[in-house]
Records
---
Amino acid sequence: MPGRVIFWIPKAILSASISQTRTRSDSLSILIIFVTEFEFQDLVEKTIKEIPAKLREKIQNVVFTVEPDARVPQGNEIKISRGNFLLGLYQGVPLTRRGIHYSLALPDKITFFKKNIEKISDNDPAKIAKNLKAVVLHEIAHYFGFSEAEIRKMEKAKNPG
């Protein structure tokens, strides 16, 4: 169905309901903010809805999932250099590789790794939203058939420096 966003959230992370907590270290008070799984899911859905309608309508038979973090097999599917985090993962057959006999296929899957996105965003909700948008666009570009090198080149051209 064009424009339909389907989410799957593992049961293990649904129990997390803490949205923020305060910690004290000597006389220093630090506010640590956690984005709940539902807030993160809403943010993903909002970001997808912001994609121009002409592109969004072409996204069909895709399941968007939120995982707390990347499991080892997922991390091994692609090469991740030391010190970097897997933020998202596209699994499926890109549109450019689908032939006339492509039918009755399981949905493609785009997974977003919440904890890794939060880590690179310093748990700042505004940075999480900005970085999540970049990850959503990056993974959807894979769905449309762009290679990692092509996407990196486009990202670099958009944000030089």
Note: The beta strands are 7-8, 20-25, 28-33, 62-67, 88-91, 108-113.
---
Amino acid sequence: MTREVRFLFDRRFDPGTGQARVSSEAPAAGETPDGGAAPESDPVATEPEPHFTQDDMDRACAEARAAGRSEGAATAVDATTRRTAETLNAIAEGVQNLVSGEHGAHRERTREASVLARAMVAKLFPELNRRHGFDEIVGMVEAVSSGLTDTRALTIRVSEGMAEPVRRHLAAKVRVRDFEGESRVVGDPGLADGDCRIDWRGGGAVRDSEQLRRSIDALCHEVLGSPAGAMTADRDDAHVTAEPAPPPVPSQSEPGRHHTAVTSVHKPPAGELP
């Protein structure tokens, strides 16, 4: 390659040089233009190249494998934990839906049973009372008369249609029970067939068919719940609450006084008995 030579003037123009003639040749390496030696430059500091042995590389590979296995295991555990949590949530949701569905089915079955039971009572009770009302009256009179040892008189009030059959049937039955007092059967137009009222001095007993029917209906209501349209759902505790059944009403044959639907004992007002 051609050596590059800087352009130099033949004369110096610096003050005090006397315009000395300057060589046209470029100064040699390591010299200044005026022929002096150039100052030595500091060599550039360089770092030694790193040197790795086979043991170093094997150790680095082992550490990398261990780190990779640890990271992979952690990732697998996280994925397994996430899938397990998702599965458990799905199971819990399914069980909740199953339980809710079963509760709904149970409420529906209870409602249907309540409707059926109360419908059966409403349909069957009048006929059963007509068939067995007479026997119920006889049994009631026998039960009452057997415990009245000091009573002189009984007044037995039944419906007008049942007065004569009851009078004939009870004539012998009362004597069998060792009842020494007088018994009188009276037909009462205010009493229905199957109803009976027994009065004696100091007490009495009543059989009210309508009240008995109401008591049976109230018992069905209490045990099985309300009929369709009368049940209310509580959203907080998720169960069905039945509205209370109406209380029994007093007997229409005795205004102002209340008797239970089953046989009961009462004290009649003074002067009511003969």
Note: Strands lie at 153-158, 182-187, 196-200, 203-207, 231-234, 239-242, 264-266.
---
Amino acid sequence: MADLDRTEVVPPHQGDLVLPADPLFTRLLTNAYKSRSRVVIRDVNANVEKTAADLLSDVVNFRRVLKAALSKEAIEQISRGKEVIISILAPGGYEFAVGILAVLALGAVASPLSPLVPVKEAAYYVNHARSVAVIMGSMPIHRYSKGGAKVSPDSIKISSNKYVDPNAAGFVIFTSGTTGPPKAAVLRRAAITDGALSFGQQIGLTQDDTSLHLLPVHHATGLWVGFFPLIQAGACLEFKSGSFDPEWTWNRFRRGGITVFSAVPTIWMRLMRYWNEQILKLPTSEIDAYRSGINKVRVCMCGTSALPQPIDDFWARLRNGRRIVLRYGSSEAGVVFNMPFENNADVPDGSVGEYLYDPVATRKAHNEQGWYKTGDIARREGRFYFIAGRENVDILKSGGYKISALDVERELLSLPYIGEAVVVGVPDDEFGQRVAAVVTLRQDEQAQAFYRQHNRDCTKLDIDHLRADLRNRLAGYKLPTLLRIHQGEIPKSATGKVQKKILGPQLFPPDKYVQDSDVQIWSGPGYASLHIQGPNALSAEEQRAEREALDSITRWASDQIVEIFPHAQHSLSMGLGLSQGQPGAGTGAGGTGHPHIPSKSAGKQLEYGCDDNVRDE
């Protein structure tokens, strides 16, 4: 009898008011018992506030509606533990929360999709995932309870059946397509609970927290960071989906009550711009009220892509030295680490998953030892790690040199007149690639002061002036040789990412940009320092500045260069089984202290592993 499980000899414990034996629902039910009047979801657009008891009541009622709508075959497959996928096409809000929890309570796999995608693209996602149904959003709130009265937490039970397999598929996220066509990453049910709880513990989430959720819910950040940790902690999740409104957001901070806020670089940039262009024009008392509001936000986070250093520095100044928590991760692996670290602790081991119905992509995503390859380029200098960017879009190869587009973007954004900056590589027959920059121009008071001081036209920027302003910030071979001034905000994806693979060819069409009057082309005379000629050559004045910078480096680094450079060739390994030092945030941030120190290596392809001798990918 030792091998006999009681569930094999008793009737299954199931029913309309029985939730699966899953830590997620155990915690939700516990929260409903502990505080029946506490609001856990506030949907600004729908103008509703719901408690944990309300949420569970609507989940069990909507699950009944959903179950009745599915075929008998689909229900049978779910009961046997098979992967049955249901797509959810809804914006972040209460209806999304009910929908995804109802799918998980049914035992199916949730596949959230953006409600903004074109029909053809949505059809691709649904067909690729082989979804048996699509839950559509934008339905009246009262319809969630159709077919059932309000259910008290006292009536809801947790099944005494076996625990739901934590290794079973929980939800499917279609990647953003940053490194290629979107792939369907399958995340385990354990990721919903363990990953969310781990993250919640890192930032100290409690039921007293309120998080403002402005991000899409069809990608990993919106779910793993913005949704599951909050609802399991019993905190309040305040949704406001739709177009981002910096004025509304600043006023919400000012009213108070928000303690957690996660955003993407685009949002942080727009909030900074609104502060500079609008709030700073107000009376001092009004400015102080806004400053007080943002300083009451206990945890500010940024993910999906790197936060440019000038923007990070702005928020650190505004928040009395407290920096935004920078997250590094992926849809496939979740949050790998946060910056800054506190104790240099190892990152816990994770799970190896799959790309849904794509074994070729799954195999290509790993090396021979089984480590997951992120596609990032990184280097280590001493105790510090530097992520230079995506291998295929952020690492430019010009004249034999590897150039980090993120380095160039960071310095562009440090200029007082640049609003946004994107750097891409444009094919060039002789040098491989040109360094091309597309920028937007600021018109705030700081930018106007710069224009007046340098006697420039605030509506124009020529590439010679740009290169001159960057001359003491970047090595000559990194300076842009193509420039385009973009009117309005630079286009981005639904998750706030710049799709460089698409944007680059659109703005700088290979072999055609020379005929485009909006593209400024720089070509300097003859010889350039560091033996670069052609599109990256320097003028005589630039060469003098370059020599002075190199002389300064030589004097400064004479007693440090031996310590730094022997480590620059090591591959950065992090994530599954990592033991690492405190990471840096870019060139010069890792303790080198000098902005002009060249790197011996642009780095190796980043893998999840724990081996300093990982081969160069």
Note: The longest helix spans residues 52-69.
---
Amino acid sequence: MEEYPVIVIDNGTTTTKSGYAGDDSPRSCIPMVVARSKDKNSTQNAYVGDWALGKKNMHFSHPMEKGLITNWDDMERIWNEIFFIELRVDPEENRILLTESLFNPKQKREKTTEIMFETFKTPAVYLIPSHCLSLYNLGRETGTVIDMGSMSSCCCIIDGKIDRNSIKKLDVGGKEVTNFLQELLERKGYSLSNKIERVNVREIKEKLSFCLTNNEQKMSSIEEIIKESGINSDEKYHQNYQLPDKQNLAIGKERFLSTELFFRSKIETLQLSGLVENKGNEKDKIMINQKGYDKLEQKKVVVENENQIESSDFNSSSLPNMIYKSILNCSSKEKEKTQKEMFKNIVISGGSSMFEGLQERLTHELNLFWAENAPEIKVIAPPERKFLAWVGGSILSELNKLQNKWFTKAEYNENGSSYVNIKCNDFL
């Protein structure tokens, strides 16, 4: 097959990154939004990406939800914008490497390749989970990778292959943190309901939110710090944020309360901070216990409890719990040795992993699972982790590691789109 250049596209629910293989960073980061006029007589079909942001009197839609494509027409518009406007390349003259979710079903993989071959006429395509590329970026083939975007997902990768039994997810990501931050600000009396104001809330989150650590105050627990936040912490954590209309928002404890969703339920966070009354009823207790692990579970040793969680149990209810369960479910022959290796190589990646303090907080929370003899726990948070998967794809393509693995147009014509599930299966 002729050696066509490679375009790398990291599809994300909020932002899609794209660029040329061999580059150190993506050329384009396009917001995943499509806007259509509410005026039925409008001649403008749709605005895509940056062109859609800030438009008024429009219907807004998003092509992806929780890492999966849900609107193919809009997704095709996004890809069209990337090829012909953002990168100014002809997809007929480029191979396309696309990232995908760990939970991407076969039908969506097939539809993706069908569009690439039939609509954009690309000569070859390859689909690969973003987790593999993030690890490859760091020059590793073994480790635990957490991808944090619109949701959080985790898997163990052993010698370059995903251990399918280790795949776990947490339905908390950037959108949930943004929504909670908006709720916290509205509790202070600010009105932030329309689309443009929500964009501002997301910007506040990205610039000002952080994760609490035990270094914040000399206290024995995160819980005590949160309780203290309900009394007098606004002054300590105070930051001003000016909206485009010149309105100033005074932001205090909301900066760290918003990210507590990664570690505990919303109701528990609100109760600990004193924003809602804890009446101690059974419903509240059930919701509080949704953090994902209690003090007793924290004392258990991973290796001794390797069979207590079903491999089909994808869902988790806190970030540390998700990682714990993922490593717990490793199906390696040398399980104890592999688990120790996994705890020493925990990589966080994605846009929602950029919160200050997350690395330290995760390390602290994971250590709580042991009363004694805890394994070495190392959480790796590269500064460029927002683009970790895209750069990994850039490196992988440039080194020709996929030389004979590409799903070609000829193979598509001969075998159909379902052949992608055989051809693009080297890392699964």
Note: The mean pLDDT is 85.
